[in-house]
Amino acid sequence: MEGSLGFLFLTFLIIPFPHFFIFCTGHTHSEVHCIDSERHALLNFKQDLIDPLNRLSSWTVDGDCCQWLGVVCHNLTAHVKELHLTTFYPLGDFETEEQYEAYERSMFGGKLNPSLLDLKHLNYFDISFNNFSASPIPSFLGSMKSLTSLNLSYAGFVGLIPHQLGNLSNLLYLNLRSNNLQGTISSVIGNLTSVISIDLSENELGGKLPRSLGNLCNLREIRLSSNKWSQEIFEILDSLSGCLSDRLEILDLSDSQLHGHLPDELGVFKNLVELSFQDNSISGLIPVSLANLPSLTYLDFSYNLFNGTLPQNFGQLKNLVKLVLWSNSISGPLPVSFGNLSSLTYLNLGNNLILGPLPVSFGNLSSLTYLDLGNNSISGPLPVSFGNLSSLTYLDLGNNLISGPLPVSFGNLSSLTYLDLGNNLISGPLPVSFGNLSSLTYLDLGNNQLEGTLPQNFGQLSKLETLFIYSNMLKGVVSEVHFSNLTSLRTLSAAGNQLTLKASQNWIPPFQLEFLSLQSWNLGPKFPPWLCSQRHLKSLIISDTRISDVVPPSFWNLSSQFTILNLSHNLIHGEIPVILFASMIDLSSNHFEGPLPCISSNVYMLDLSNNSFSRSISHFFCFRVNEHKNIEYLDLQKNHLSGKIPDCLMNWNNLKVLNLGNNSFNGSIPASMGSLTNLQSLHLYKNKFFGKLPSSLKNCEKLVTVDVAENRFAGNIPSWIGHRCTSLMILNLRSNYFHGHIPKELCALASLQILDLSHNKLSGSIPRCVKNFTAMATNNISNDHLNSYRSFDHNGYLIPLPLESALLVMKGNIFEYSTILQFVKSIDFSKNSLSGKIPVEVTSLQGLQSLNLSYNLLIGSIPVNIGTMGLVECIDFSMNQLSGQIPSSMSSLTLLNHLNLSNNNLIGKIPLSTQLQSFEASNFIGNKLCGPPLTDNCTTNGVKPNRRSKDNSGLEVDWFYVSMSLGLVVGFWGVCGPLLFNKQWRMMYFQFLDHIGYKLKSVVL
């Protein structure tokens, strides 16, 4: 019988439309037949059931009900005593959606007919795993006094728990788990004096537990998890006190919105075997009274707010088998007494604040099979005694501060299947003994400080499926021997080491990988031919691996199987002859050439920057023009692309990042770029675009970055930028032909951090409303909103994309900012024709780091309170017509490291400060200034002194007037002297004057 049922169950799992379901049948003697009244009751009950697959086809009018599926009769009296009408949920999960849909279609529905009341001897009723979502639990069930077991779990009942159930005085087992029950529990539940087990988990019950629960002296198991009790935990425990507390063995209040501190009175439940308060908000210390529960075998306090240290007396729980305290705020060292928990098989203390070394006594936990101490602050070396845990199958010590070498004794853990030591400070070589871990399927040693070479006997780990050794300091050569028996390997992540792979040209690895990352290895100069044998490879990352070859056609034939493909930062050349399909593609920083490859709609991220791609991109953007593209990130900067941007971007509206910078594009921006309504980052810098910015861009209201610098755009700066692009943080219009005034509408950009309008033809005054640039007025950082959209979701994991970058002029030079871009706050209006005064409102931008107003026509004085701009590092006001003195407040700008005030009309003394006197004199020339760093000294009034010398009597001689007088005397006697003393010269001179006068007269006439 059992064998045939097992076959039917397996059949149900395999076929999408199951025709067989498991039921109990009556084990009756052949001469015993069911009672007519009970048969009629069952047939009436069947009429109100919805049976979509006709599972109760054997329930016929003339049949023997004791032989019907799901019916169990008494062997002697023939009374129906059990009804098994559950729809069994298969073990494990469904393999296909069709199987799950078939399972749902097999469920009973409808309603429960009161004819069940005629089954006077029914003591077991199970209708679990069905769908009665349209009806509440019938109150008539409370009149079925013979019931000892009632199972309505996973049946979709709704509404309140009928108080009539409190009349079932013979009930031993009540299971209402996982329905849609609401409201409170009636106090009449205290009338179930015989009940042994109650399960009300996974409903929407709330309110307070009735104190009458404490009167159920026979109750051994109560499960109330996944409800909305929202009580203090001590109130719950108080409700359960009484005779119940002496006998209760299982208490489950997981996921119940409980809070408060756990009282010491918990120790009164002396017979507790299982205790779970998982996933609540219980805080405070774990009470030491827990050690007074000698029968406790299972304890789960995970996902709470417990703090403080672990009780030192935990070692008294000799029968404890499973202890789970995952994800709390437990701190302090691990108690040495844990080594006394000789029965412990499962210990999870991960994701806490535990610190200090691992106790050597942990090596005494000989029964331990599962140990998770990951995500803590455990430090010090790994104890050699860990090698004694011969039963251990799972060990997670990742994300700690463990240091020192790996013990050779770890090679004794022959039962270990999962080992995570990643993200620690472990140093030294990899022990050869690790090759003895023949049961390992998962090994993570990534992000440590391991040195030396990779032992060859790693190649003997035939069951190993996942190997992480990335970000270490491993060196040397890896050969075919290292992989000789890794037939099960599916994931290999070894990036960030200095290893060299040497394999023959005809090597075919014994594995078929799905994920491979060998970034920074030496795989070149030839493209590794063995990669072409990996028919299941989905993610390939071999960036910066010294490959300087052409990609073979056999590799491109595999391109459709990839989801992640990263060949960046190599010297790979040649054309890409295929359509690219991978979701995430990074081929940047190579020497790829020819036209851009076309992409399928599967691509989400594409980086082809810093290559030698050329020609038009019309075929790229217009490929399958009516097909919607899912791509969100596109970077084509730093290539040799040319021509116009085609007007076929309508189906690219998932784009968030578009970078076409540093190419040779020309023409105007197509109107269809305005259809990119999700666009947040637009880079068109350093091309030959001309015309006006299209008004259709006003539809791109999510823009955070706009960089169109170094083009030939003209016209007025559009005012709609301030109205529509309210999230803008970077606006760079440098080196174009924009003219007219700076629109006041830009002042609405409260999030703006970088504004560069330099090298244009702007005129008029600087708007006083610049004070509305809120982000520049504070020293708060943007929390990296600039890069919040730069990630790629791959199978639930967020993979970061390249950071937002910008070319900014700072201190007279162009710098590219990326990693610290979110911290930069800058205004550059230089090299325009701006006039008027520097508005005093500029000084309210106290988070500003760079202010460049040079090469304009600004007049007036420097704002007196410029010293309030305490974070400014760079000021350039050169080549203007500023007048007055340098404000003394400028001496308080302690972060200032670049200042240029040259070629203005400034006067007076340069204020004294450590900063101002450290600059070159050239930064102040072209003014009427004095004092250091200039060589001109100043009087007390700040006026440049006359240069005089003193004679012996102390009188000063002004040599300017002396030299002027001497010049007059020499000039007079040099010309007039000969005329006075030589008569012939005198006569010739006057004849010359007469002749000149005659000539002038004739000309006038």
Question: Notable features of this structure?
Answer:
1005 residues; alpha/beta; Leucine-rich repeat, LRR (right-handed beta-alpha superhelix); 33-stranded mixed β-sheet; 11-stranded parallel β-sheet; 10 helices; 69 strands; elongated; disordered N terminus; disordered C terminus; Leucine-rich repeat-containing N-terminal plant-type domain-containing protein; glycoprotein; transmembrane
The main sheet comes to:
33 strands, mixed
Strand residue percentage: 15-25%
CATH homology group of the domain at 405-574: Ribonuclease Inhibitor
At CATH level 3, the topology of the domain at 405-574 is Leucine-rich repeat, LRR (right-handed beta-alpha superhelix)
Shape: elongated
Helix/strand structural class: alpha/beta
**Whole-angstrom Rg:** 43 Å
**N-C termini distance:** 146 Å
CATH-level-2 architecture of the domain at 405-574: Alpha-Beta Horseshoe
Number of strands: 69
Which residues form runs of ≥5 with pLDDT under 50? 1-30, 941-973, 983-1005
- Average pLDDT, all residues: 88
* DSSP summary: helix tally: 10
What share of residues is helical?
10-25%
Regarding CATH, which class of the domain at 405-574?
Alpha Beta
Membrane topology: Single-pass type I membrane protein
Protein name: Leucine-rich repeat-containing N-terminal plant-type domain-containing protein
Keywords: Cell membrane, Glycoprotein, Leucine-rich repeat, Membrane, Phosphoprotein, Receptor, Repeat, Signal, Transmembrane, Transmembrane helix
Transmembrane segments: 959-981
